[in-house]
Amino acid sequence: MYNLKDYLLNKYWDIKKSFIDQDTKILRKKTYLNLIYEIAVQLVGAVIIFIAIMSAFAGKIMVGNVMSYIRSVSLVQSHSQSIMTSIYSIYNSNLYMNQLYEFLELREEKNQGHKKQIVEPIHSVIFQNVSFIYPNQGEQTLNHINVSLNKGERIAIVGPNGSGKSTFIKLLTGLYEVQQGDILVNGVNIKELDMDSYMEQIAALFQDFMKYEMTLKENIGFGQIDKLHQTNKMHEVLDIVKADFLKGHSSYQFDTQLGLWFDEGRQLSGGQWQKIALAGLILGKLLCIFWMSQVLRWIQLQKKKPSILFSVCQKIK
């Protein structure tokens, strides 16, 4: 559509060439090392055999011993070659596994010091002089933000791209740690809270939400895994988001396979996927947090009231 074929193909071949160059460099290094190693092994073997033959001529050892020396040298040469091949395979594999090793070596941060407080139902969240800056960024994304959020309120965060809306939400949900200032949840600093209990009471739907190529029940139930088999509750939340397109014979088919990865999968539009994600978000959550600027933009363009968004918040409350 955008005549990107030549650009993308050239990009592909450039990347492929860089991989080939890297493999060629590694193979060249391997060849040099193997050559030097083979020369050294052959020289050592030749010297040992020569000494054994001369010793046999001098009568110091028997001819049978010479044959034993020759067989021993041959075995050492063959096994040493296998060792070199294994070392190369390990080195070559390690080049592709470094990032995996770094990820596996990450340790989960544990709460240190005194016991963290369990979060009761959230009544208020207050930002006090909160600032945030990303690494290698000169300017602060958030600069001394002061906001008060109370139970029952419906608040829209509006601003241009790059103004810090996503950062604000990620600080609110605990995905980012507070760098400067304080976030108070029910009057308690968020750093003093047990984050697992805090996150159990909040839900966020971002623009790049996850689409699970699994059943309808699993897509909704992952929002609250303890309610994975509570289809009656799922039926209620699907009615809230008006997901009538999922009904078959007047009832929802929770075993329907979504997506096209597997046989008999059902493909959905972007808006339909969003409704399913929204249903999973509100399943059992106590605090509703929406981050759907594309949906709000569509509402603005259509000049319609965001009935789904508001009714969901009312149901959650």
Automatic annotation (TrEMBL):
InterPro entries: ABC1_TM_sf (IPR036640), ABC_transporter-like_ATP-bd (IPR003439), ABC_transporter-like_CS (IPR017871), P-loop_NTPase (IPR027417), Type_1_exporter (IPR039421)
Pfam families for the chain: ABC_tran
The name this protein goes by in its record: ABC transporter domain-containing protein
ABC transporter domain: residues covered: 125-316
Localization: Cell membrane
CDD domains in the record: ABCC_MRP_Like
Membrane-spanning parts: 35-58
PROSITE patterns: ABC_TRANSPORTER_1, ABC_TRANSPORTER_2
Record-level GO cellular component terms: plasma membrane
UniProt keywords, alphabetically: Membrane, Transmembrane, Transmembrane helix
GO molecular function: ATP binding; ATP hydrolysis activity; ATPase-coupled lipid transmembrane transporter activity
Domain of life: Bacteria
Gene3D superfamilies according to UniProt: ABC transporter type 1, transmembrane domain, P-loop containing nucleotide triphosphate hydrolases
Bilayer disposition of the protein: Multi-pass membrane protein
Keyword match Cytoplasm: no
